[in-house]
Amino acid sequence: MAKEISSVTDPRAMITEGCRLPVKMYNCDEWPLAEILNIKRDTEDGIASFYVHYVAYNKRLDEWVADARLDYDKMQMPSAVKAREKGADAKSLNGSRPPSPEMKPATPRPPAPPRIEKVPIVEKIKTEIKVENGAPPVGPKQQPKKKKLKAEGGIAVDVIVSQDSQESNQPPTPRQTGSMSTHHPDDVVTRMKNITMIELGKYRLKPWYFSPYPQEMTNIPVVYLCEFCLKYVKSSKCLERHLVKCPLKHPPGNEIYRKQSISFFEVDGRKNKIYSQNLCLLAKLFLDHKTLYYDTDPFLFYVMTECDDRGFHVVGYFSKEKESTEDYNVACILTLPPFQRKGFGRLLIEFSYELSKFEGKTGSPEKPLSDLGLLSYRSYWSHTILEILVDMKPSENGERPQITINEISELTSIKKEDVISTLQYLNLINYYKGQYVIVLTKEVLESHMRAMQKRKLRIDPKCLHWTAKDWSKRGKW
Ligand code: ACO
Ligand code: ZN
Q1: Is 63 an annotated catalytic residue?
Q2: Closest to 275 measured CA to CA, from 256, 241, 258, 300
Q3: Distance of alpha carbon 112 from the chain centroid
């Protein structure tokens, strides 16, 4: 009898998918709360392994763990989890919702800052404020406080905020078609990583997320990719055979940029469909918030490579709709993991804005941005805008230099909303004597200068050989 009771209450016997409990994280001493997504039992010895998602962390940290890493004492059954979430939801209706897990800091990865769409945006005009077409960068109820202007050791620039900056309050509509669209349902299959490892050129990469490679690629230790055409095969032997006959030593399409070892190839998703699909499959391994589709026709892919005597090796890419009704200049962007944190992401972003400058347009990345996407864009926008402000000279009569949001936007091709959200994020806009003034403090200037000195890789517009096509005038993409 006693034994029966203990088996009913033994958490080891009760553990199922949906249970939550502390789990020891790989390579560190932390035991964050995790949800069991899947359980696999060895048919011979019955030993179980568990696929866990750390609740407050990005999905790329999800992993298979052994029994010894679970803290059963604090296990919550799925019903308890649901009841707790219901309670939390009810609370949220009263306006006190806890931050969603995706918004929580994802240490040891960087914390996810608030999403761009949630940054308060410019609204109404205050008539007594002396602004050209004026719209202050605060909501109507938040009256701007008069602050004492301080710029010791720094620079002050008048900023003239334009009226039509308010249009950005509309949340962007996620695209549902194309090579990748915004990811919605979190079903059991796509919630779990399905590829163990890929080999690409001289690198072995551990995927972060699910990608819809064919079933036969999912139960093998390594998927081998041709680093030039991105074809995937099941074994190194197959790859060897493929490499003998593969004609490519660079991505297909036109090389539209080359400076030193860095090149960009423009690949048309309609003309090079197989390559584009293979690129999307590869990218999806590191992109969480997109679902992959096979319609690559409406996209161009800008593939960045590094060249050596063996060929042009892919470093990263971004895709771009041939026609975007929302002024998106990037759909998806990726630096392959071995090349991350070396300035290549920033280079890709800079290139995307150079294309927009050639087109005479402003642009913005497709939303939602991932946590790393937002960090990279914030960093790029901040430094690009600061570069302009720092270079501004006082007028001849010694007055503070003046610039409008529109001018910053035109000079950089960064969409107005992103200019405003960046200025707000950097907390640079001050209200002084009826004017909006950007005050660049000594600290901001110094940190900007430090970042600029680190920034070795830059796009050189002179090396871009490209003419923008007007896709709306073409019968077919
Ligand atoms: N931790 C902290 N800050 C980071 C990190 C990180 N892991 N990665 C990027 N940043 C920030 C930093 O501010 C960095 O500047 P710093 O090096 O001076 O500190 C800045 O971003 C740019 O860094 P790069 O080295 O130029 O960027 P990277 O080559 O690593 O590429 C990218 C950034 C493309 C976002 C990369 O992390 C990636 O491919 N991630 C996976 C796919 C993804 O999330 N793509 C964006 C999706 S959103 C969209 O597609 C529109
Ligand atoms: Zn090949």
Answers
A1: no
A2: 300
A3: 11
